[in-house]
Amino acid sequence: MRRPRNFVPRAWIVGLVLALVCVGWRDWSCARRVDFVSHTDSEQAQIDPASPTGYRGGRRWLIVPERNDRTYELIAGTQ
What we know:
By secondary structure, this protein is mainly α. It has two helices and no strands. The radius of gyration is 24 Å and the shape is rod-shaped. The model has no long low-confidence stretch (mean pLDDT about 80).
């Protein structure tokens, strides 16, 4: 029994489409997560020009992807 000749090219197309769907779904879910985290407690972020951080109460509203305490120290020192 011989395989049809059109099976192999169709298999590549199906695999490519599946890979594109997976990458698109991952990017979409990451973008939704960033949007959600960025708007968490954003109503409390009130701008204060007199504050060294730029926000009322000296608070900082920066989302850092990896927790690195040295980075926070550098940001505070710069401000």
